[in-house]
Write a structure and sequence with these properties.
The complex is a heterodimer of chains A (99) and B (1005). Chain A has helices at 37-45, 93-98, and strands at 3-6, 11-14, 19-23, 53-59, 67-73, 79-83. Chain A has 99 residues and is an alpha+beta fold. Chain A has a 4-stranded antiparallel beta sheet with strand order 3-4-5-6, with no helix packed on it. The longest helix of chain A has 9 residues, at 37-45. The two termini of chain A are 28 Å apart. Among the domains of chain B are: 14-150, Ubiquitin-like (UB roll) (Roll), CATH 3.10.20; 164-292 and 426-486, FAD/NAD(P)-binding domain, CATH 3.50.50.60; 296-422, FAD/NAD(P)-binding domain (3-Layer(bba) Sandwich); 520-590, Orthogonal Bundle (Arc Repressor Mutant, subunit A), CATH 1.10.10. In chain B, helix 5 (180-191) packs parallel to helix 6, helix 18 packs across helix 23 and helix 21 (777-784) packs across helix 22 (831-842).
C-alpha cells in the first residue's frame, strides 16, 4: 500500500484515501471539433504504459478532494515527487537515465 | 504412554507442569514450554503425515517456520478447527487436539501409499497437466481423488466463534526478529528514545540463542536475552510483540504482523479476548533480522522419518529436552552440522558417525569431534537410507572432491536418525516482497537481500554472517544507522563477549550423488510438502522448462503452505546444474507475501457481519422497517424494495403499489438520490459544459432534466438540476452514481477549467426526499402547506421554497412516474416527521408507499431510462432516442459532443433503445435476453441487442419491455425474437418505449 504525500494537505496519507485517475498531463483539446476522429481517439483511449517513471493524476478522494500529480516508478513503486495541477514534473525519464 | 525421548533435565520446559494433548484420537503427555512437535517427538511419534503425491510416511524435519511435513489439523470442536498448523510453531497447551491432515484410512496404515508405489510413474512432474486432463468428464472424480490424497486440511463447517482485531501502527523502527541481531538493533534504537516495534514469531525472544549452548559474557545466552528484554520492556516507546510473525513487507515500508494472542492457551480465545491481531505498520525504517534456515541435503530416501536438519536436532535437545532418536548419523558440508552430534552425545545417546562431505575439514569442530571419539568419515556422503516408517540404517559412500560423483565402495551403518546440514539460507523472504531481487553470494553459499528502494536495513544471518558475534554487532550497527537516518541522535550499547569460533570454509553442495544416475536412484526429495524430487526437477529441465518460474510451476517446487522454505535453494541449484547454468544465472522465484499462512479471521478482523461494509440508511428507515418493507442494496444504501402486505406475492404487492399510485397517490423515499450543491458565477457555464443540453436560460425557480456523457459521447448519468439562484444550482444524480459524478465535476473543474468560478459540495445526506405521485398528490400537498401549489402557481418543472408540515422545504414539481408528482425535500432530521405527517393526511387518499421495484415499473411504463440499466457505456443520447436532450447549438463543445460525432457513433444500424411488446401479453421477457431478427437462422444466430428493462404492468394489463435493437428506431412495428435458455422463442414487436400516456397529459394537470 502506497504512502502518498498530498501536496494540498501537506501530509503523508495512506493509499486508501486516494483514487488514481491514470496518466497525467492529458489536456483536453481546446477545439474538439477541429480534431479528426484519429486525434480524438488518441486523446480518448491511448495511454502510456511505461516500465519506469510514470506521471499520474491522483485525487485525495477521501480527504481534501483535490487533484494533483505524482511521478511514480512503476517498477519499484517509488514516488519520486508530487506536484500541483498545472505544474511540470521535475523528475522525468531523461533526467533519471542521465544519472 | 511415557515420554521415551525426554531428557531428565535441561531445556526451557517446565517439567512440573504436565500437559495432556491428543493426536489422532490418542492421548499423550508433554510439558509447558513444548511445541506440539517437540511433545510428539518426546513421545516417539515418528509418522505425522503422508506425502502429497506418493503418500509416503513423513516425520518432523525441522523445528521452526520452515517445517514442511508436520502440518496439522487442530481443534477440539468443529467450530474451532484450524487447518495446516505447523506443529513446530504451535505451543502445547492442556487439552490440545490435533490430527494428521492426510493419510487415509490413517497415517500409519495408508492405502494411498500403495497407489504411490504402484503408480509412482503416474505422477511425474506436471502430473496435473499430464495425468488428469482426459477425459474431461472424469475431472470431478480426479478432483476428489487428488483432494483426498493431497492433505490440505479442512476448515470448519461452523462459524468461527472467536473475534479478531486489526490495529494500525506507526513507528520509527520496526525490527523483525528478536534473535541476537534484532535485540541489539532494538536496544540501540530504543535507548535513543525511538519508537520501536520488535516482533518475533516465537513465544520468547532470543531466536537462535534459545537453543544454543554458546555463552555470552561467560554465562548462558538466555541470561543476556532476559536482561535485554527486560530493559526493552521498560522503555515506554518500545512495543514488544512475541508470537507475532511479520508476514508481509509491502510498498513504502508498510508491513503486516500477525500476532497470535491466545493460540498458546486454547483453540478458542478466553471470553473478551481477541484470538489474533493483525498489526498494519507504517515504519519509517525497517531492520530485518530474520536469521537463516538450515538447508537439508538431498540424498536417497531422505524423507524417511528420522531424517532431520541438524540444527533442529540441537534445538529439540537443548531447548525442549527431547532427543528424537537413539543412533545418530550426521552428514554435513560445513562446521555447523557437528553441533548436533555433540548435543546428541551429551544427551547420552549414540553418535554413529559424522559424515563430512569435505575432503579435509579442519578447525575447532573437527578437533572437538576427535576429542570426543566420534567416528568422523571425511570426503563422504550418505547416499541412501533404509527404512520406511523410520530410518533403520544408512549407506555411506566416498565422494569425489567436487561432491558430484560416488567413488569407492558403500558402507552400511545402523542408525535411526540422520541429521544433515547443507549450510544456511538467509531468510530473505520479506526483503523480496516489494520486488527486490536477491543476490547470490558464493562465500555465504546462499542468496542475500538485494538492493531496495525501501528504507530497510539487514543485520545478522540474513546478511550472511552466521556467527553470534557478527549478529550482535550488525544489529547494533543497524540500530545506529536507523537513528542517524531518522535524526534521532546516537546511542551505544555494550555488546556481550562471545566465544571465539574457528570456522573451516563450507563446501557448496546440495545434492549427494548416488551410484545410479538421479533418474534411476532412490527418490531424492527436494520439496517434501509437494513431493518434488531431484529427478523430477531434472526431468522438467529436460522437457524444456528453463526459467526457474516455469520449473516451479511445472513441478510444484515451492508450492504449498511452507512455500518451499526448506527445499527451494537446493531445487534451484539442481535446476541450475541440469540446465548448465550457475545458480545466480538461474535465479530465484519471486517471494510474495505472506511468509507463513495467515488466518482469514485476522485479515477480516472486525469487518464482518454488521460491520462488513458501512450501510447507509435514510431518515425514514425506521418507518420502512415497521411497515414491512423488504430492502434492496443500492450502493451502500438500504432502499425499500417493496412493501408486501400479509399474504401477498411479490407481484401482487407490485401490482397494488403501481395501481394505487396511478389511481390515487403513491409515495417513494427518494432520499438516496445524489445531490450536489453548485455555486459560483460560472456555475451555469459549467453545467452547460458537462451536460448535453442547454442551461444558459434556465430561470430561478425552474428545473431541467440533463444527460451527462463521457468524452466518448456515451451516457453515464442523468438527473434533474434546479436553479436555486442566479449563481446557485442543485444537481441530482443516480443513487449509485453520486460519488462518481461528484469526482467527475471536480476533475474537470480542477484540471481543465480552473478559470471557472464554481464550487461543488455534496449534500446528499443533508436532505430527505419524499416523492408523492398520483392524481391526488396536489390535494395532499396543499393540505400540508399554506403555499399555493396550484397548476398556475407551481407549474410542471418548477420548484419553490415553502413550509410543508410546518418545516422549511424545497418542493420540486418533477415526475419520474408520469403522474402529477411533487418531490418534497426537507432537512434530513425533519424527514421522518414530515413523512409521518403525509401519512396522517394521506390515509384518506389511500397513500401507498412503494419501493424501487414499483418505481422501475412506473418509469418503464413511461419509457424513462435508468442510466446504468438501459445504458451500459456504449449508448449515446441519440441511441436512446433522446436527441431532444442534446443541444448542438451551445458555443462550448460540451463533454460528449465530439465523441458522439465519431464515425462509429453516426453510422447506420446502431443498437437503439426501443419499446418491446410481446405478442403473448402475459410473457415477461427476462432482462438480458438476446434478440434475433430470424429465429430460424443457423447457430450462431446474429444477435441484434438485448432486453434492458422488462416488467409486468398491472396498469396496462400486459408485459412491457425496453431493449436495444439494431436500427430499432427505424423498425417500428417489426418483430424481434428472443430465444430463451428454456427453449422458448418469444416474439415481440418493436414499439415506442412510452407505453402509457404518450402525450404527457397525466403530469400536466
Amino acid at each position: 500500500m502506497l504512502h502518498i504525500y498530498c501536496p494540498h494537505c501537506c501530509e503523508y496519507r495512506e493509499e486508501e484515501e486516494f483514487h488514481v485517475k491514470g496518466q497525467a498531463h492529458l489536456a483536453r483539446p481546446l477545439d474538439p471539433e477541429a480534431c479528426s476522429d484519429k486525434e480524438w481517439g488518441e486523446y480518448l483511449y491511448f495511454r502510456k504504459n511505461p516500465r519506469g517513471l510514470h506521471h499520474e493524476l491522483w485525487v485525495h478522494a477521501a480527504g481534501c478532494r483535490k487533484f494533483f500529480n505524482v511521478t511514480r516508478d512503476t517498477v519499484s513503486y517509488e514516488i519520486k515527487e508530487v506536484y500541483l495541477i498545472g505544474e511540470k514534473p521535475s523528475v522525468v525519464a531523461a533526467s533519471v537515465s542521465a544519472k | 504412554m511415557t515420554q521415551k525421548n525426554r531428557l531428565q533435565s535441561g531445556g526451557r520446559i517446565d517439567r512440573s507442569k504436565a500437559l495432556t494433548f491428543t493426536y489422532n484420537g490418542k492421548e499423550y503427555k508433554g510439558f509447558e514450554g513444548d511445541t506440539l512437535a517437540s511433545a510428539m517427538l518426546a513421545n516417539g511419534i515418528d509418522v505425522i503425515g503422508r506425502s502429497f503425491k506418493y503418500s509416503r510416511p513423513r516425520g518432523i524435519v525441522a523445528a521452526g517456520a520452515e517445517e514442511p511435513n508436520a502440518v496439522m489439523q487442530l481443534g477440539a470442536t468443529e467450530a474451532t478447527q484450524v487447518p495446516n498448523v505447523r506443529a513446530t510453531q504451535q505451543e502445547l497447551f492442556d487439552g490440545l487436539v490435533s490430527g494428521a491432515t492426510n493419510g487415509w484410512p490413517s497415517v500409519d496404515n495408508d492405502l494411498m501409499g500403495v497407489v504411490g508405489k504402484v503408480g509412482g510413474k503416474m505422477m511425474p512432474p506436471g502430473f496435473y497437466y499430464k495425468t488428469f486432463m482426459y477425459p474431461q468428464s472424469m475431472w470431478e472424480t480426479y478432483e476428489k481423488f487428488i483432494r483426498k490424497a493431497a492433505g490440505l486440511g479442512r476448515s470448519s463447517l461452523e462459524n468461527d466463534p472467536d473475534s479478531y482485531e486489526k490495529i494500525n501502527q506507526h513507528c520509527d523502527v520496526l525490527v523483525v526478529g528478536a534473535g541476537p541481531a534484532g535485540l541489539t538493533a532494538a536496544l540501540t534504537a530504543g535507548r535513543a528514545g525511538a519508537r520501536v516495534i520488535l516482533a518475533d514469531e516465537q513465544s520468547e525472544f532470543g531466536g537462535s540463542l534459545l537453543s544454543s549452548r554458546e555463552t555470552l559474557d561467560g554465562a548462558e545466552a538466555s541470561q543476556w536475552v532476559e536482561k535485554v528484554t527486560a530493559e526493552l520492556a521498560g522503555m515506554k516507546e518500545v512495543m514488544l510483540l512475541p508470537r507475532s510473525t511479520v508476514n508481509g513487507y509491502h510498498d513504502h515500508n508498510f508491513l503486516t504482523i500477525h500476532q497470535r494472542n491466545t493460540d498458546h492457551i486454547s483453540d478458542k480465545a478466553p471470553a473478551g479476548q481477541a484470538r489474533q491481531t493483525l498489526h498494519r505498520v507504517r515504519a519509517k525504517w525497517v531492520v530485518l533480522a530474520t536469521g537463516a534456515h538450515e538447508r537439508p541435503l538431498v540424498y536417497g530416501n531422505n524423507d524417511v522419518p528420522g531424517c532431520m536438519i541438524a540444527s533442529a536436532v540441537s534445538t529439540y535437545i537443548n531447548r525442549y529436552g527431547v532427543v528424537p532418536g537413539n543412533e545418530l548419523v550426521v552428514m554435513t558440508t560445513n562446521d555447523g552440522g557437528y553441533q548436533a552430534a555433540f548435543d546428541w552425545q551429551d544427551a547420552g545417546r549414540k553418535v554413529v558417525a559424522i559424515v563430512d562431505t569435505r575432503q579435509n575439514p579442519q578447525g575447532a569442530q573437527v578437533a572437538e569431534a576427535s576429542k570426543r571419539g566420534i567416528n568422523l568419515i571425511k570426503g563422504s556422503g550418505v547416499i541412501d537410507v533404509a527404512g520406511s516408517k523410520r530410518v533403520t540404517g544408512v549407506s555411506i559412500a566416498t565422494l569425489n572432491a567436487e561432491g558430484t560423483a560416488v567413488q569407492g565402495s558403500v558402507t552400511k551403518l545402523s542408525a535411526d536418525t540422520v541429521a544433515t546440514s547443507g549450510g544456511w539460507s538467509p531468510v530473505i523472504h520479506l526483503a523480496g516482497h516489494t520486488g527486490s531481487r536477491p543476490v547470490w553470494d558464493d562465500k555465504v553459499v546462499g542468496f542475500l537481500p538485494g538492493p531496495t528502494v525501501e528504507k530497510r536495513l539487514v543485520a545478522g544471518a540474513i546478511a550472511g554472517d552466521f556467527t553470534t558475534a557478527g549478529a550482535l554487532a550488525q544489529g547494533a550497527e543497524a540500530g545506529r544507522k536507523a537513528l542517524a537516518e531518522l535524526g534521532l541522535g546516537q546511542a551505544e550499547i555494550e555488546l556481550p563477549a562471545t566465544e571465539e569460533v574457528v570456522v573451516h570454509p563450507p563446501m557448496t553442495l546440495f545434492q549427494i550423488p548416488h551410484l545410479k544416475k538421479t533418474s534411476e536412484a532412490p527418490k531424492q526429495f527436494v520439496d517434501y510438502q509437494n513431493d518434488v524430487t531431484a529427478a523430477g526437477i531434472e526431468l522438467a529441465c529436460r522437457e524444456g522448462f528453463e526459467s526457474i518460474e516455469h520449473v516451479k510451476r511445472y513441478t510444484a517446487l515451492g508450492f504449498g503452505t511452507d512455500q518451499g522454505k526448506l527445499g527451494n535453494i537446493a531445487g534451484m541449484a539442481i535446476a541450475a546444474k541440469a540446465t548448465g547454468r550457475t545458480i545466480p544465472e538461474t535465479g530465484t522465484t519471486i517471494f510474495r507475501p505472506n511468509y507463513t499462512p495467515v488466518t482469514f479471521g485476522a485479515m477480516v478482523g472486525r469487518d464482518r457481519g454488521e460491520l462488513f461494509d458501512p450501510k447507509r440508511y435514510t431518515a425514514m428507515h425506521k418507518w420502512h422497517v415497521e411497515n414491512g418493507a423488504l430492502f434492496e442494496d443500492v450502493g451502500q444504501w438500504k432502499r425499500p424494495w417493496y412493501f408486501p402486505k400479509a399474504g401477498e406475492t411479490m407481484q401482487q404487492s407490485l401490482d397494488r403499489e403501481c395501481k394505487a399510485t396511478r389511481e390515487s397517490i403513491g409515495i417513494l423515499d427518494a432520499s438516496t438520490l445524489g445531490k450536489i450543491d453548485i455555486q459560483g458565477k460560472d456555475a451555469r457555464e459549467f453545467l452547460g459544459r458537462v451536460y448535453t443540453n442547454a442551461w444558459a436560460k434556465l430561470a430561478v425557480g425552474k428545473c431541467r432534466y440533463g444527460l451527462m456523457c463521457g468524452e466518448d459521447g456515451m451516457v453515464f448519468d442523468d438527473g434533474v438540476t434546479s436553479c436555486l439562484g442566479e449563481n446557485h444550482f442543485v444537481m441530482t444524480t443516480t443513487s449509485g452514481g453520486a460519488a462518481r459524478v461528484y469526482e467527475w465535476l471536480e476533475l474537470y473543474h480542477q484540471t481543465e477549467w480552473p478559470d471557472l468560478e464554481v464550487y461543488f459540495n455534496t449534500v446528499t445526506d443533508h436532505w430527505s426526499t419524499m416523492t408523492i405521485s398520483g392524481p391526488n398528490a396536489r390535494k395532499l400537498l396543499q393540505e400540508l402547506t399554506d403555499y399555493d401549489v396550484s397548476k398556475e402557481n407551481l407549474g410542471f418543472m418548477d420548484w419553490r421554497e415553502m413550509k410543508v408540515a410546518g418545516v422549511p422545504a424545497r418542493v420540486f414539481r418533477i415526475s419520474f412516474t408520469g403522474e402529477l408528482s411533487f418531490e418534497i425535500n426537507v432537512q434530513a432530521n425533519f424527514g421522518l416527521q414530515v413523512w409521518e405527517k403525509l401519512f396522517e393526511h394521506g390515509a384518506k387518499y389511500n397513500l401507498t408507499p412503494y419501493g424501487t421495484e414499483t418505481m422501475h415499473i412506473l418509469r418503464a411504463e413511461k419509457g424513462f431510462i435508468i442510466a446504468g440499466q438501459d445504458t451500459d457505456g456504449s449508448v449515446h443520447p441519440y441511441d436512446l432516442g433522446m436527441g431532444w436532450a442534446v443541444s448542438q447549438q451551445k458555443p462550448f463543445s460540451f463533454i460528449g459532443k465530439r465523441g458522439m460525432a465519431r464515425e462509429d457513433c453516426v453510422r447506420e444500424n446502431r443498437k437503439q433503445l426501443v419499446g418491446l411488446k410481446t405478442t403473448d401479453p402475459t410473457i415477461v421477457l427476462p432482462e438480458g435476453a438476446q434478440g434475433v431478427f430470424d429465429p430460424k437462422a443457423p447457430i450462431p444466430m446474429p444477435m441484434v441487442g438485448h432486453i434492458t428493462s422488462s416488467y409486468w404492468s398491472a396498469n396496462l394489463g400486459h408485459s412491457i419491455a425496453m431493449g436495444l435493437v439494431k436500427g430499432g428506431l427505424d423498425r417500428m412495428g417489426e418483430k424481434v425474437y428472443y430465444p430463451l435458455a428454456d427453449g422458448r422463442v418469444v416474439e415481440a414487436e418493436i414499439c415506442s418505449p412510452i407505453f402509457l400516456d404518450p402525450k404527457g397529459e397525466r403530469q400536466n394537470v
